[in-house]
Amino acid sequence: MLVDFDQIMVATGETITMVAFSLIFATVIGLPLGILLVVTRKGHLWENAAIFSVLNSIVNLFRSIPFIILLVVVIPFTRLIVGTSIGTAAAIVPMVLFSGPYIARLIENSLLEVDPGVMEAAQSMGATPRQIITRFLIPEALSSLLLGLTIATIGLVGASAMAGAIGGGGLGDLAITYGYQRFDTVVMIITVAILVVMVQALQTTGNILSRKIRRR
């Protein structure tokens, strides 16, 4: 094997860093975007066809671009934001742009699953639109939202591996540089095994938290 244990740990840490920060920033973008996609659609709290159409088109546009292409397309923007187009920090930018709209769509679907009767009951009690969103809509959808974020996080793990194709660091970069280019099968097996363990841990944790919230 051409790499040592320390290199594998560093690469694993870089992957976790990319996924964690990308998830945070993407959720900051995706959560309000997903809520707006729900409340501005026809028949909802803040019905506005123009805003809904614009936001819906933006989400569809970004979701239609394959991540490996997005990595290359946004290189100038990445350089503008972090000053470089390679490394862990640079990989976070396209990962956020890729996952933000995806999270927005997951949040939209979760909120649309909430029984309309919940909002009708809230309106009958005199709740404002803001109160309906924060005290009724989101709490009712919280279990589903957690599962959606779990799916998004797993998607980011896969995206972080692809980011290694352009020097994004992490396990993907390790697998390509040492496993593929230098024909080191052991490195490939180790990186795949670590990624599988990460995905399984994330999915299990998400399922447990979702069940606990659903029972409350």
Automatic annotation (TrEMBL):
InterPro entries: AA_ABC_Transporter_Permease, MetI-like, MetI-like_sf. It is a multi-pass membrane protein. The chain crosses the membrane at residues 16-39, 51-75, 81-104, 145-166, 186-209. It is found in: Cell membrane. Residues 12-204 form the ABC transmembrane type-1 domain. Pfam families: BPD_transp_1 (PF00528). It comes from the Bacteria. Keywords: Cell membrane, Membrane, Transmembrane, Transmembrane helix, Transport. GO terms for biological process: D-methionine transmembrane transport. GO terms for cellular component: plasma membrane. Belongs to the binding-protein-dependent transport system permease family. CysTW subfamily. NCBIfam families: PRK10782.1. This is Methionine ABC transporter permease. It comes from Virgibacillus necropolis.
